[in-house]
Structures are given as C-alpha cells and as structure tokens.
Amino acid sequence: MLQKIEHVEDKVTHYTDLAMGYATEYGVKILGSLLIFFIGKWVIRKIVMLMRKGMERANVDSTLISFASNALYVGAIIVIIIAAISNLGVETTSFVAVFGAAGLAIGLALKDTLSNVGAAVLIIFFRPFKVGDFIETSGVMGTVKSINLFSTTLTTTDNRSIIIPNGTLIGGNIINYTGNHTRRIDMTFVIDYKDDLRVAKEVVMNVLQTHEKVLKEPAPVVAVGALERDGVQLIARPWVSVEHYWDVMFEITESVKLEFDKHKITVPFPQMDLHVKKGEI
Predict the structure, then answer these.
(1) Backbone phi, then psi, for 7, in 5-degree steps?
(2) Residue 281 DSSP label
(3) What is the mean pLDDT of the chain?
(4) Residue 61 to residue 147: CA distance in whole angstroms
(5) In terms of Cα–Cα distance, which of 83, 76, 84, 70 is closest to 33?
(6) DSSP character for 180?
(7) Which of 1, 68, 164, 260 could in theory staple to 265 by disulfide, Cβ–Cβ 3.0 to 4.6 A?
(8) Which helix or strand (DSSP H or E) is residue 224 part of?
C-alpha cells in the first residue's frame, strides 16, 4: 500500500514538473509575443503621429496625410503580428505563403474594387484636385467633400452628395474650376439695333471697372460678339478671384440691367412683325 502511494506521488510530481516546464517555456513565449504586439502597436502609433505632424507642418495635402498614415499603420501592424506569431515558435514562412495566396485570390475577386484603390493612389499623388475644389466630372459638378481609397464624394450646389468610384472618375475628363487662383467670367448681353452701340459698351465697361471685386489685371474686355437676328450681342470678359466668381457674375448682371434701364437701352426679345397688305378681292 505504501509503495502504491509513493508511486502515485511520483507520478504527480512528474506531471507537476512537466506542467511547470511547459508553463515556464510557453508562458515566457506568450508573454514575449504579447509584449511584442502591444509595445510595437504603441511605437507605431507614436511614429504615425509624428509623421502626421511633420506632414502637416510641411503643408502636405490632408488626403495624402490620411492615406500615408493609414497605409503605414496597417503595414506595420501586419509585420508586428507576424513577429509575435514567430516568437511563439510558429513557422511564419508557410503563414506568409498562405497569406499571399489568399491576397491573390481576394485581389482577383475584387479587381474592380482594387482598380478604384489604384485610381485613388493616382489622385492622391498627382492631385488633379483636392478636398474643397469645385470640379466637373462624369457629367456632374460639385465641391470635393472627401477622397477615400474607393470613391470620391462631391457636394453639389443644392447640397446633394454624389459618390463617384475613383476608377470611373480618373478614367474621364476632370474640369477643376478652382485649380487656379483667378477665373474669367464669360457674359453676354444683347441690345436693340436702334440703341447707341458706343453708349452700351461704355455702360457695360463702367460697370466692370467700378466693381470692387473685378481684377484690374487682366483688364476686363467688352466687345461686339455678333449681329444676331434680334439684336447686337455684346461680350463682357471680367477676371475675378475664384472664390468671388458666382457673386460677381450675379451682381454684374443685375447692375448692367439697371444701367441699361437708366440709359434707355433696351434688351430685345424674340418677336415677329406681321405686315398686312390690303388687296382687291
């Protein structure tokens, strides 16, 4: 009986020592892997934060800052996870191969989506427009509200949101109305043939030259554009700062009409004159 008790005690001691050995060996590895992950994650956040601050001080576009920060963070996290798994003794070569194969399969399945990501990279680095620009593309116009990896969101003048896939956007024509600091307003006014052409030109030019937001250089232009069926077409070409475009266009249109009324200059409208000739029946 005593021998059996001693035998049981030996087994208990053996398994206890074995458990302690495994706990010590793998516990240290697990603790090391956790430390690698959490410390690495903390370091990455600090690096990303420093990179963002440096890019902001360098006046880098906000979209590029966001894209670069997210790409760096995701890439570094993947490296840290692989390092933590490797510390546990897991063979990471096969893991990387499986990850690569899965990435290839996902890439083939989502090729259209990934083309939008590629287009986003082109937009961010070549910057045909940026957040806040007013653009026309794919048959729509609006202010660029946001640019992400898959799509660009425009806000129209009547406050609608239009989401355009980046692949579609980069594949067509893009008109950036706010890409330059100044912009020309193309305006057309029509006066009656009976009105004094020289007076009308002086009236329009005076409105342009006295408007405080019309630029002196390039100088505004007023010229005869065409002799139409219903009247004489006057072309006005003032230059303004981009942010004043719409306000100046509306204000000049109203001012020209008021000045035309003051100088008795008429704006003709389509009409037809009928001449009835009496004849013998």
Answers:
(1) -65, -40
(2) -
(3) 81
(4) 11
(5) 84
(6) S
(7) 260
(8) strand 221-227
For residue 14, the model assigns a pLDDT of 54
pLDDT score for 117:
75
The alpha carbons of the chain give a radius of gyration, in whole angstroms, of 37
Instruction: Report how far residue 8's alpha carbon sits from residue 2's, in angstroms, rounded to the nearest whole number.
Output: 10
Q: What is the pLDDT of residue 237?
A: 96
Give 143's strand partners: 134, 155
Compute, in degrees rounded to 10, the torsion defined by CA atoms 7, 10, 12, 16.
-170
**Interatomic CA distance for residues 228 and 242, integer angstroms:** 31
Where do the domains of the chain lie, and which CATH numbers do they carry?
17-109 (1.10.287.1260), 129-176 (2.30.30.60), 182-262 (3.30.70.100)
d(CA 89, CA 71): 28
**Structure pTM?**
0.59
Both tokens of 202, joined, read 């002086």
Spatial separation of the C-alpha atoms in residues 90 and 96, rounded to whole Å? 11
Which residues make beta-bridge pairs with 144?
A: 154
Token reading at 92: 């990471």
CA dihedral of 36, 37, 43, 47, whole degrees rounded to 10: 130
| Segments in the chain forming alpha helices (H) | 2-57, 62-87, 92-109, 111-126, 166-170, 197-210, 245-262
pLDDT tens digits for 230-267? Answer: 899 999 999 999 999 999 999 999 999 999 999 999 88
Q: Which residue has the higher pLDDT, 124 or 47?
A: 47
Over residues 30-64, the pLDDT tens digits come to 777 788 888 888 988 888 888 888 877 877 666 66
**The two three-digit tokens of residue 245, written as one number:** 């475009």
CA dist., res. 173 & res. 229, Å (int): 36
